[in-house]
Every structure is written in C-alpha cells, then in structure tokens.
Write a structure and sequence with these properties.
It is a single chain. By secondary structure, the chain is an all-alpha fold. The chain folds into 2 domains: 276 residues, no CATH class; 34 residues, no CATH class. It is built from 18 helices and no strands. Helix 5 packs across helix 12. It starts with a helix and ends with a helix.
Length: 401
C-alpha cells in the first residue's frame, strides 16, 4: 500500500501549502520553503530507488494525477484570497476557517507585513509547477487516452502553459539532444543564457507543429480545432478570474506565478538534458538524457527522474518506468541539481565532470565531431580535456603522418 500512497505525497503537500496561504504572516511562505528544502535534504538521506515493482491497480496512481486540476484550482483561489484586504472574504473562506479553528484569519491577513508577499510568490514557484506542470506533463504524454490528455492540457493552461504540452510531446521528444531542441542547453550556456532561447523556441515550435497538424486536417489555423487557441481560452478565463477575485494585486500575483511556473519547467529541462548531443538522424537512446534514481525526487515528480527510460519510450506510465542505473546520472539528484543551476559557477563545477564522463563512457564515435565542436564553443577550458578532443587530435595527426 505504501508503494501507492507515496505518490500522493505531492498532492498532500500542495494542499497544505495552499491552505497555509489563508493564515497570513510566515504561513504565506514557510510551507513552500519547507517543501523545497525538505525534498532537497531528504533526497540525500535516502538510498537510491532502483526497484521496479509491478502495480496491479494503476487506476489508483492515475487518481494521484487527476487531483492536479482541483488542487491547482484550490491554490489559485487561496492565492486570490491571500492578496485580498479589508473585510473581503472570497467565498466565505475566512469565516469557514475561523469557525473550524477559532483563528481570525481575516485579521491575520490584514496585519501581515508587506515583505511576506514577495516571499510568498517566490516560495510558490516550485509547488505551483508541481501541482500543475509535473502531473500535467505525465498526462499530456497519454495521447491514446483522451481524458488524460485533456486534463493534462487544462491543468497546464491554468498557469498559461499552453505551448509546452504540444512542443514537449511532439517537438522535444523528437529533437532531444540536437540543436533543434529548445530544451537541450548548449555546453557552456548558463541557465540565464539558455532561458530566452528556450522560451522563444518552445512557443515557435508549438505554433509550427499545430499549424502543420491543422493543415493536414484541411482546417484553418483559427478553427476551433486549434489546441493552442482552445487552451488559451482557459488561460484567459483564469486571468480574468484573477482580476475579478483579487483586483490588481490578484492579477499581478497570478502573472508572477505563471511566469515562475514556466521558468521552473524550463530549468528542469535544462538539468535533464544539459550538454548532451545526438546525431539528428540517429534514434533517441536512454544515454541521451540525464537520469536520476534519488528516492524523494522521484516520488515528488511522478518518477520524472527516471528520465532515460522516459525518453526511450514516452508512452510508458510513470509507475512503470525503469530505473536504468547504468545510464548517465545527473549530479546530486534532481532537486539539488535544479537549485544549483541558479548559481552558474556551482552548476559548472557539478556538470563539467559529468560531461567529460559522458564523452568517455556514453558517446558514440559518430557523435565525436558534435562533441568536439560543442566543447570548443563552450568556452570552458576543462572540457578541452575530453577524451573526444584527444582522440580526434590523435586521428588528425595519424592521418597527416
């Protein structure tokens, strides 16, 4: 039973974080910070999870994903309530909480100092992505199950994630580890160099893919069949609701979370594919993604950490992904690796040895020219010690002789 219940920890954590928004003060941000720090710390304490048990009741695990839409709705409403003021009590939530707990949460909200609100928004970035983006990511891959696909797209659209479901499934998984993939960062690129390129190319790819799909169907880009336009209606509805429920503060808070959720997803992609290379005409193999078998990261991301198998077969449901401990492993677990990318020198220190190891142990000889060029363009002197550079120099000298 615990094997099933562990995948409900993320929904429960997000429910608690959202509820904390009703109590003002430190409760606006402390649960979110505890979520981020707790996963990072406990990830280092537990042994790696390489077990691959069978699950006889997959519908139970589906339900953990289906909770994403009501949970993101609850977080949205709680956020709008938290940025209110005076006697406003959205949906009577304050009165209800006071009747249950005896705490006057409206007074607590009104007496909350201003600096708690920026901390609240920062602390919500990762949980908000977890409640919509991570569950949504799993669901949008289930293209053979219309309800799952619909739910995943709607969940991601709540934070204006309308391009990701299309580009990720039909673009990223085709182009991964090539220069055409917006999610694969070039060697030497910091997160801050990568983000503008990735954000732009994700949107462009999504529009190109949807346009091509509609053209094959003989339909106009502006037809009701356009998935981007349909999900944009959902995003617009949430934007209007944010203003109606929370006024200008609600609209600004909602806009910040939308941007933050997008940046978090791009940062996760940055970690999972950094610097890896593949000939575009060669099939995607498990070695073309950074893998991770840290237990806690896996639980809270619905096994997104088992990224090597996910890219080898994107239709496999999260509970059935293989551990593949023999594949290239990202440094320090997903959560700690993710946090380190915001400090480029720290990320460089962590990832450069991993890239050298990948060049030596995982790259094919057909990929050597790509690696040599990427190492040269990176501007990182440590990558010039790659076995690929040495072997290619030797081959050049042998040919000249």
């Amino acid at each position: 039973m615990l094997r099933y219940l562990r995948f409900f920890l993320n929904p429960v954590a997000n429910l608690l974080i959202s509820t904390g928004l009703l109590f003002g003060g430190v409760w606006l941000w402390l649960p979110g910070i505890a979520y981020v720090a707790g996963v990072a710390i406990t990830d280092q304490l537990y042994p790696h999870d390489v077990e691959e048990p069978p699950y006889r009741f997959p519908r139970v695990l589906d339900f953990a994903l289906y909770l994403s839409l009501p949970l993101v709705g609850f977080m949205f409403v709680c956020l709008m309530w938290a940025v209110g003021s005076g006697a406003t009590d959205l949906f009577g939530m304050g009165a209800f909480v006071q009747s249950v707990t005896g705490i006057d949460v409206i007074e607590a909200r009104n007496s909350t100092a201003w600096f708690h609100y920026p901390l609240m928004l920062l602390s919500l970035a990762l949980p908000a992505t977890g409640v919509s983006g991570l569950a949504g990511h799993e669901l949008v891959h289930r293209t053979a199950r219309p309800f799952d696909l619909w739910l995943g797209r709607i969940a991601m659209a709540t934070w204006w994630g309308i391009a990701f479901p299309i580009e990720h499934v039909y673009g990223h998984h085709t182009y991964v580890a090539t220069t055409k993939d917006p999610a694969t960062a070039a060697r030497g690129d910091s997160l801050y160099q990568h983000l503008p390129k990735s954000l732009k190319r994700t949107v462009v790819n999504a529009w190109e893919l949807e346009r091509a799909r509609l053209k094959k169907l003989g339909k106009s880009f502006f037809s009701p069949s356009n998935v981007l336009l349909r999900t944009a209606v959902v995003s617009t509805a949430f934007t209007v609701a944010a203003y109606l429920m929370g006024g200008l503060p609600g609209l600004l808070a909602y806009g910040f979370i939308c941007v933050a959720a997008k940046l978090v997803l791009e940062a996760l992609n940055y970690v999972e594919h950094y610097g890896l290379l593949r000939q575009p005409d060669q099939p995607v193999q498990p070695r073309h993604s950074w893998n991770c078998n840290h237990t806690v990261s896996g639980i809270f991301t619905y096994n997104l950490t088992r990224h090597s198998h996910h890219h080898a077969d994107a239709q496999v449901h999260y509970q059935n992904l293989k551990a593949m401990p023999e594949e290239p492993e990202m440094p320090g677990g997903l959560q700690t690796a993710y946090l380190s990318v915001f400090i480029p020198p720290l990320w460089r220190k962590k990832i450069a040895p991993k890239l050298l190891e990948w060049d030596r142990a995982y790259a094919s000889k057909q990929e050597w020219p790509l690696i040599a060029e990427a190492n040269a363009n990176s501007g990182w002197p440590e990558l010039q010690d790659s076995v690929v550079n040495q072997e290619m120099d030797y081959d050049t000298q042998s040919s000249a002789a």
